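Rotation project, supervised by the postdoc (A.L.). Task for the rotation student: set up a whole-complex structure prediction and record inputs and outputs verbatim in this book. Inputs entered:
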Amino acid sequence: MFDPIPWLILSPLIWATLAFVQGPGRGGRLAVAGVALQLALAATLAQQIIAGGARVYAVGGWGAPLGIDLAADGLSAVMLLLTQAVALPLAFYARAYFAAHAAPLRYFWPLTGYLLAAMNALFLSADVFNIYVTLELLGLAAVGLVAVAGGAGPVSAAMRYLLATLLGSGAYLLGVALLYGVYGSVSLAALAPLIAADAPTAVSLAAALMLLGLMLKTALFPFHFWLPPAHGNAPAPVSALLSALVIKASFYLILRLWFDLFAPIASVTAAQFLGALGAGAVIWGSLLALRQTHLKMLVAYSTVAQVGYLFLIFPLATGAAAEVAASAWQGGALQAVAHGLAKAAMFAAAGAMIAATGRDEIAGLAGVATRLPLTLFTFVLAGMTIMGLPPSGGFSAKWLLLGAALASGQWWWIVVMLAGGLLSAAYVFKVLRQAFLPAEEAAHFKPLPRTLEWPAFLLALASLLLGLWASEMLNLLGAA
Amino acid sequence: MSLNETLPLLVLASSLLPGLIIFSLPEERHILRSLFNLAGATLKLLLIVYMLWGVLHGEEYVFRYTMLPGLDLLFVADALAMLFVTLSAALWFLTTLYAIGYLENSPHRSRFFGFFSLCVTATVGVAMAGNLFTFFIFYELLTLSTYPLVVHRGTEQAMRAGNVYLTYTLGGGALLLIGTVWLYGLAGQVEFTQGGVLAALGPEYAGQLQIVFFLLIAGLGVKAALVPLHGWLPQAMVAPAPVSALLHAVAVVKAGAFGIMRVVYEVYGVEFAHALSLLLPLAVAASVTIIWGSLRALFQDDLKRRLAFSTISQVSYIALGVALFGPVGTIGGVVHLVHQGIMKITLFFCAGNYAETLGIHKISEMDGVGRRMPWTTVAFTVGAFGMIGVPPLAGFISKWYLGLGALEAQMPWVLAVLLASSLLNAAYFLPILHRAWFRPRTETWPEEHIPMQKGRETAWLLLAPPLITAAATVLAGLFAASAISPLDWAKLIAAREYLRWVP
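Outputs recorded:
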């Protein structure tokens, strides 16, 4: 049987290196072909997992504990699919976006390739140290991408991001060291039964450090300070990649650690605390998004808010009945995917609007409804998922989370989710309202190539259709 | 998939697809656009006629798609659904004609007609929803697709109205969502079933069910403009006249009232709702709304604003009919869904004609308009008399059954409400008619857009729709006893909703 697992990591490494060799600003075509191949690989893997359950791949034929194991289950397959499905339209989009910009951005394609390789490797990793390596790679590639445009704003944002991401991986590595000290192993599969059998205080400390580091990387409130400048200042395709995918990678690890590794020592209090931080993110992020005057900053703060919903999984699924926990966990995963698709579409649409109007303030959007109907429509569709309106993927996610909250009697999370939904409607419509105003006399709209509008639209459409096909995704997610 | 499964989808697609195509049409292709609009509207009507015939003969049109485990998208064309579908499809056809005439040469027509079609799609979805979840989906889509219509003019006032509209409707949607999720948690998939489904739950759930009922009715009451949730409706009258017609008669307000019907009759079951003593509060809320809306209408000088307050009052007749325990009250409420629609759309069409032809927006400018625009004013008069409840017009039939229903439900105080409301209706409509017919014109018209030509007072496309709906108002009253009248259909529905009570 053909095994797609190693190729998912090798493919981006290969085309990234070739793009680097080809020279600055080139390699876009290769990247598109590579990502398309990866999408097919991820789909093959997903089918294999649905048919045959979770998979383990021993690199070079050497299994753990001597060699490195790669593993894929339903959750990894979902994240891999999401990554390639977001990256493919964005690759088309980026080609058009950078063609329109005077100075071709030098290292965009190589960095993107390394970013995708690191991310795919992360989703396939089966031990905590390997995860650290991929995290570090991912962080460095992402920082490079933020700084890729040059200039004072992006570079200082990138420095701040670098600091946050290094701090995060440092804390994580400390936790890994503690774990290794106690148990003498780093493999997830080997550690889980050991922790269940006996967990000294050092393990709790390790868990706290690892989670803290990952929370910093996920930009969970109150560690979100680095995200808006980094995502708001980067070029639009980069913002889309970072907001849709990169923060999901560290969130994926939190899920893995909490539910697989540290499940025996996870307490309800800690879960409620994580939920409270998530609630803070939902409210605070939405309020700040509402106050922004620049389009991309608004979208970036919306990411801060949407990340908050993801953390509602923990209080809803920890210590609850199996059925409630399953519903919460499915809702959270669905939210991660729906938000990934929608946020990529939203940033891409914002980038297209800014490219056309030449202004990045929300006030400069008047007339967009008439001149760029497709892009505005994209923004609306993506906004539906962000607001959690039916029949979008975001709505199905919210439905599952609300159901779990009601079933477990935790009404306070319901209040948070509804308030967050209404606040997000307020900031999405703040943009729409401006777009519907008649264009100013002096406004000048640059015509946009189709490849700058359609990829974003397809992403938004996918986030909407996800609501209708959610049961397929949940099938894959449940495949063990 | 069999034909009976596809038909509900086809009814949805017959406005969804033209809508999407129209979005992509360039602004100047107005003939092609009108063609798509009218073809879709006609096709929808034909499909519906076919389905009406089928429903009468016991056919079932059901489409089911599982979105998540235990969460189905379900369309069912039952008797109640068909009542609303027929109303909105027929009025949509007329409103489209009217809008083509009304918006001639105005900007952004592709956008307007695109959202117009989406709005009707959402309404038909609301009507055919077979469970609370599907209902909620289309209820929210309705909000989204009407917002661009409300702010269509892009003026500061329209934008403000749009904000108010969104705040109210999205807030209401949130309440409806909690209620729905809660019920799904308690009772699984809440499918609309004649006689209700919740009575099967034990008495220990009574408290929760009362809270859920409150949440659902509050969520639906926003669109149905129950006082104190009505604030958005008078603001939204800044939208163009065809949109007002749509909001008040075809889609939004009706969706709320229709939802209240579904919840009381087919989720709780009217007998169970009565047993939980939920009907009396609803009746009181509806009565307060009826009186308050009429009182506020008295003091408006802006014609469309007065009509808007009149809608607030009149739509609550439907909720009142629902809240009167007994089949006769039900008949009154259900039939008023149709009657209020045709009467109110007539009035809004006429108000649009006055504004578009002569620039008249205020009642104080209407002196002598009856002589300049006799046909429009005749239609307006029929609509107004219908609202007051003058026999033999449609509004009289509604009020008659509501009155009888009040006696049957042993709530005689409702009669006083009906009487007071009719007096107030007369008090705010008759002065308009007096001005229009009997006051002489002394000054020129505020802004005459369409001059008098060969005895034709305004454009044909503007004149025909109100005349047709006015004629329908007369016919629905005169032939109420015939087999194809709305009243007859309402009786069919009432007979099916009362399990033990069939008269």
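Student's summary: The radius of gyration of chain A is 21 Å.
Supervisor addendum: The interface with chain B takes residues 369-370, 373, 377, 380, 384, 389-391, 396, 399-400, 402-403, 406-407, 414, 418, 421-422, 425, 429, 433, 436-438, 467-468, 470-471, 474 of chain A (CB under 8 Å).
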